[in-house]
């Protein structure tokens, strides 16, 4: 059984060339002053979504993502606050039969097929010399820039990173800590193990502060197609204080109203020019209730303990239900169509009861 987690996507240390954007911007790049104009570009989650939407295998999703990178580029501004913030991305791509790591720097990329063991991506390139697929000009570009002499064995992470990657599995940081946590449980990883890792704050996997972990996901992908794939989502920040809720794809799924962000059509500042001159509340109902619940939990009063206990109790019941489905191979489709929406409603009810209680 293959399990994978996609809590955060992104890699923040790659070398890249200036891209065209919509406004003049001065910055230092490679030690010299550059002025350039930036265009709107794809974000990681856009590339992920299009790969999921258009592909039916992991490798086809990889093909779609790299084709989009070549055609449109990446690095769109991630902020609506007027601050220019962008990054290039890494992806974990998996289906029932295979898994890939795709890591990028601008339009250049390398991909590794994962055939055994554990892998993680966290804010740095991790593909070294085992490269199963790559951009056709990736090595030539590195030679032109003086990053690789064309003689020694090509190491993607070492070549396309600013940092020293030789000690990345032993140096402090999210990648190293995630690597250690996964290897600690290697050979005995369950979906609950993955959730524990995603909830781990000392390692930095569960991030706090300005770069808060915004949502978390763990998937069970049985190789036997007679078993359903089960995906657990929080849909809320801080998995340590969130509920992992199961979702199974079946026909006629009920609308996910409590976890759908509002749409603003022509009033959306992303569609207006100049962009992002106004800021809208994009939080979905579950997110809003969860934010109120965190205020109660942070006070560490009696009802905060009650709320956390109720959240974990709901989660455990959901886990038992999913384990029963996998053991018995029985899927009540009429019930599953409402599974995730009902879980979200149950979670919201826990928050409302404890927030309103005196």
UniProtKB/TrEMBL annotation:
Give the GO molecular function terms.
Answer: cysteine-type exopeptidase activity; dipeptidase activity
Which BP terms does GO give this entry? proteolysis
Record InterPro entries: Peptidase_C69
State the family named in the UniProt similarity comment for this chain. Answer: Belongs to the peptidase C69 family. Secernin subfamily.
Q: What is this protein called?
A: Secernin 3
Which source organism does the UniProt entry give? Pipistrellus kuhlii (Kuhl's pipistrelle)
